[in-house]
Amino acid sequence: MVKYIVAGLAISSLLHAVNVQAQQDPTAPLGWQKKSPSVVVSAPSLPQLQSVICESQHCRAILNGQTVRVGSYIKGYTVSRISDSSVILTRNKKQWQLSLFSADIKQ
Which of 40, 43, 76, 102 is 20 to 30 A removed from 88 (C-alpha atoms)? Predict the structure, then answer.
């Protein structure tokens, strides 16, 4: 009877070892561990500046087909300033300048 219990323990230990080994990739390099996928959070894409309309002291802009004024929100950004050719957007204390015309003027 004692031999049967010892044999049962040996078989149980062997099955446990096989189960642990099956949870790991046998072809992986030594010391390598599978990394959990990381979550990447990206900022919303910048709106496209399509037009600026200024009348006397007040300007408004058209971003992605939507008319905005200073203080407006669009796609997670706040419109901070509008001039006759550009718009300043802010988000999380960072600023982006959208211009109507490219800075690279070729002749």
Answer: 40
Q: How many residues does the chain have?
A: 107
The tokens of 17 are what?
């070892």
Compute CA 37 distance to the chain's CA centroid, rounded to the nearest angstrom: 13
SS3 of 14, please?
helix
Residues 60-86 have pLDDT tens digits of 999 999 999 999 999 999 999 999 889
For the entire predicted model, the pTM comes to: 0.56
Q: Please report the beta strands in 14-102, taking only residues with DSSP state E, as ranges in sequence order.
A: 49-55, 58-63, 66-68, 73-74, 77-82, 86-91, 94-99
Cβ-based neighbours of 55, under 8 Å, separated by 6 or more: none
Provide the CA 67 distance to its chain's centre, in angstroms.
27
CA distances from 21 to 10, 36, 70 (A): 17, 19, 62
Q: How far apart are the C-alpha atoms of 82 and 62, rounded to whole Å?
A: 11
